[in-house]
Amino acid sequence: MKFQIIPDTASTFAEKVDPLWWFLVILTVVMTGFIAVLVFTFAMKYRRRGPNEKTLYIHGSTKLELFWSITPLIIFLGIFFWNASLYYDYFTPPPDCLDVYITGKQWMWKVQYPEGQREINELHVPVGRPVKLTMASEDVIHSFFVPAFRLKRDVVPGHHNTTWFQATKTGRFHWFCAEYCGTQHSGMIGWVTVMEPTDYENWLAGGGVTGSMASQGEKLFQQLGCSTCHLLDEQGRCPILRHVYSNPVKLDDGRTVTADDGYIRESILNPNAKIVAGFKRDIMPTFQGQVSEEGLMQLLAYIKSLSKGQQPATGNQTIGAQQTGQGTGTARMGGSVPRSATGGPPTGAIPVSERTQNPTERKK
Q1: Residues 21-47: what's their mean pLDDT?
Q2: Burial (0-12, 13-18, 19+ Cβ within 10 Å), 189
Q3: What is the DSSP string of 129-168?
Q4: What is the pLDDT of residues 273-328, one digit of tens each?
């Protein structure tokens, strides 16, 4: 096994973080050494040499005091703005990202790709392309950590967490759960395989796929009865979802919010939390506990697909300001919850077998 003090540098973010890290290390070492030398020198030079020796009265130096006050301030402000720039980049993914969806549960990572592929504890990505990870937890707090990418993001139950990276070299890179999550926490690990773009396309083309995430989300959308109220091309009991994602939504309390991942998720699990202007509450049932995190991500992928190729709405294009004609339903995805054609729960619901799934589950 190769022992490394410093992990590989395999992402664009790692190339930006490492100079700051080395700057802080060097600054800390230099200042620690400088202060240690001053302490030793002054202790020897100004020590009391006899019982009758009196301490000299030393006048302060305004220039010196200004120097050791202003200089650290300038250095610390520089570090702050340097960090702030990296922080902004870290939480601002480019618009052309490849979307990948990851669900953490004790003690495995389940990966879904937009094209429909699924993996357990494995992630395949192309080199040189930004990848956005939308992550959720089914049980406790986990933390997705890839040292070679300088990437670490907590995955908290109850909402979606996102992060992104762009790999700069091919190879296999270890990832870990960096948040203690139970007795088998140390085994909750995986590998990121970075491939050339052509190899990645070949990998996508191989293996059986039952449909893209958007098509699976559309199927779940139909099974849950959402389509009875959310019509795509005409006003129904609830708002039209076409062109909704990433656009501003006018609420009944006067606020305007953006229909992002968190808003869509909240809309499904807590329909009365935010009501679109012109629609009523208490029409749509809650799907809390009925749809798994993977099912929520499939629904999210489907709703995203309804807005592909559209420019964000502005001004009088705000959702809710338009959809008020016949609106008598809630602002959320509504309708009754029918059973599937076989009499079982809808696809994406939480089956009993899913709750006790073995961590050694293989790639689907």
Answers
A1: 93
A2: middle
A3: SEEEEEEEESSS-EEEEEGGGTEEEEE-TTS-EEEEEEB-
A4: 888 888 877 778 888 878 888 888 888 888 888 887 554 444 445 555 555 444 34
What is the structure's pLDDT at 53?
Answer: 78
What's the angle, vertex CA 84, arms to CA 83 and CA 89, rounded to 5? 100
| 3 state SS of 303 | helix
Distance CA 222, CA 241 (A): 14
Task: Provide the whole-model pTM.
Answer: 0.71
The whole-number pLDDT of residue 303 equals 86
Residue of 116, 133, 128 lying closest to 196 (CA atoms): 128
Give the pLDDT band of residue 242 (cuts 50, 70, 90).
Answer: confident
**Residues 100, 160, 272, 247, CA torsion sign:** negative
CA atoms within 13 A on the CB side of 184: 11
Q: Quick check: 149 and 130 in contact, CB under 8 A?
A: no
SS3 324: coil
DSSP letter at 349 equals: S
Q: Phi/psi of residue 294, each to 5°?
A: -65, -40
Cα 241 off chain centre by = 23
